[in-house]
Amino acid sequence: MSALNGFITGIGYIGIFLVLFSETGLLVGFFLPGDSLLFAAGLLASQGYISLPLVIIAGFFGAVLGNFVGYYLGEKFGYKIFREKSTFFRPEYVSKIEQFYKKFGRVTIILARFVPIVRTGAAVLAGIGKMNKRKFFIDNIIGGVLWTAGIPIASYYLGNKIPNIDTYIFPIIIAVVVLSSLPTTYLYIRSLFKKKK
Q1: What is the mean pLDDT of each run of 10 residues along the chain (197 residues)?
Q2: CA-to-CA distance for 63 and 68, rounded, in angstroms?
Q3: Structural domain boundaries in the chain
Q4: Which of 4, 6, 104, 138 is 20 to 30 A (C-alpha) from 193?
Q5: Cβ neighbours of residue 160 under 8 Å, at least 6 residues apart?
Q6: What span, in angstroms and rounded, lies between the C-alpha atoms of 139 and 81?
Q7: CB atoms within 10 A of CB 163
Q8: Going by C-beta distance under 8 Å and a sequence separation of 6 or more, which residues neighbour residue 71?
């Protein structure tokens, strides 16, 4: 636990804020470990190394502000990306994105929090799709609370219930990373099979 403790206490609450902000607000942050960071921070809090409320506060503001930035970037610059035809970016995709976010935008913004990679682009696509700002604001807050409070509180509870949790810390975190990646992996594999058909 000492290596993990040193890393998280080293980056501190500002580090937690910046990691979650970058993962959810900047497209370059898709590789950052939001789920495992929150989970590990909750475990450390259960052992008295850091403060659970401060972890939640730092994570919440990082995740929520990150999504606001992502929405703004999508709204402001999305049309430039789709202006010229290419393999991945076509002008007709914009209308499809708009239709999708009109139907499923609210659920997407909330649930995307729990899916790596998807949560990095969800807010940007919401901006491109011109999702209603008021609805986005509300759902961003709801999703932010559920994600940044739910995971640390769950791991905090786990840390208090399992004796010598530090012995299993790395296997647990690896399991969290794997489980949180399953939805994205499933969708990717499914898309590959569809292309073959």
Answers
A1: 61 89 78 80 86 95 94 82 55 60 75 79 84 91 94 89 64 60 53 53
A2: 9
A3: 2-192
A4: 104
A5: 46
A6: 25
A7: 7
A8: 123, 124, 126, 127, 131, 133, 136, 140
